[in-house]
Amino acid sequence: MTRSTVDGEREPPSPATLPEKVEDVLEVVARIPEGKVATYGDIAEMVGGRGPRFVGNVLSRYGADLPWWRVLRAGGHPPQGLEERALEHYREEGTPLVRGTLEGLRVDLARARWEPDLSGGTGADATPSLPAAPRGTLHHVEVWVTDLVAAQTSWGWLLSELGYAREDTWPTGESWQLGATYLVLEAGRDVRGGHDRTRAGVNHLAFHAGARAEVDRLVSAGPRHGWSLMFTDRYPYAGGPGHYAAYLEDEAGFEVELVAR
Asked: For the segment 207-216, what is each residue's pLDDT rounded down to a tens digit?
């Protein structure tokens, strides 16, 4: 079987020469219905054993004959450089968009995300035996910021220290992933005003941070990356006896809690 690359060049791979998991990726992408989408991370979870970058590389090399536009970056954005072509497909298929213009084009993942049958059955909607995150766990969090560069300094450092990997970037944001959960930093034109955690809404995010020594190390290094320790007189038990944790605040007023195991 001959497959095309997205840029139109022909590749003549055979199943015997394809790297491990490539066929799994191609088969899953081929099953995404019209009007539905999945992220690179979603596909990586479905096939197991590989990350979002691997999925992107597979589609870049072999994906032109498949509905590549239905596979998105973590923030809901289509592949870079292919936005115009993707938009044509979205309009044809009725894919819900956050904005219907080319500038800031983003698919509405809440409405369009594909939820395949994970039962392991057969048929058009069947996929390989897929690992799924436990029901009720967080899928992703979006943090809207007014200064992306400052957020990259503070959040980028912290997320990297906690084991997240930067999986995607676009002009107004980026996404960081750890396992089945990812966090988006977004500074697009829809962001209004500064953050105030004391108002109604989300007050802070709490992360498992490892051993107590790891929490102490992050507290010590935090000021060099824009994070300052809160409740200094009660550290590390500001959350109560037996709850070893650090509460940090960045220059934009975002608060995180780093909880020791």
From this structure: 999 999 999 9
3-state DSSP assignment of residue 257: strand
User: Three-state DSSP class for 15?
Assistant: coil
Overall domain count for the chain: 2
**What pTM was estimated for this model as a whole?**
0.60
Catalogue the long-range contacts made by 95-104 (C-beta closer than 8 Å, 24 or more residues apart).
95/35, 95/36, 95/37, 96/35, 104/172, 104/188, 104/189
Domain boundary among 92, 112, 132: 112
CA distance 167 to 226: 22
Tell me, what CATH number does 252's domain have?
3.10.180.10
Cβ–Cβ under 8 Å, residues 192 and 249: no
Question: Given 68, 96, 112, which residue is the final one in a domain?
Answer: 112
Query: Which residues, other chains included, contact 22 with Cβ-Cβ below 8 Å and sequence gap of 6+?
Result: 13, 58, 62
Position 129 in a domain: no
**Model confidence pLDDT, tens digit, residues 68-124:** 999 998 888 888 888 889 989 999 999 988 854 444 678 888 889 998 865 554 344
Number of neighbouring beta carbons within 10 Å of residue 180:
17
- Domain membership of residue 40 (yes or no) is yes
**C-alpha–C-alpha distance, residues 142 and 182, integer Å:** 9
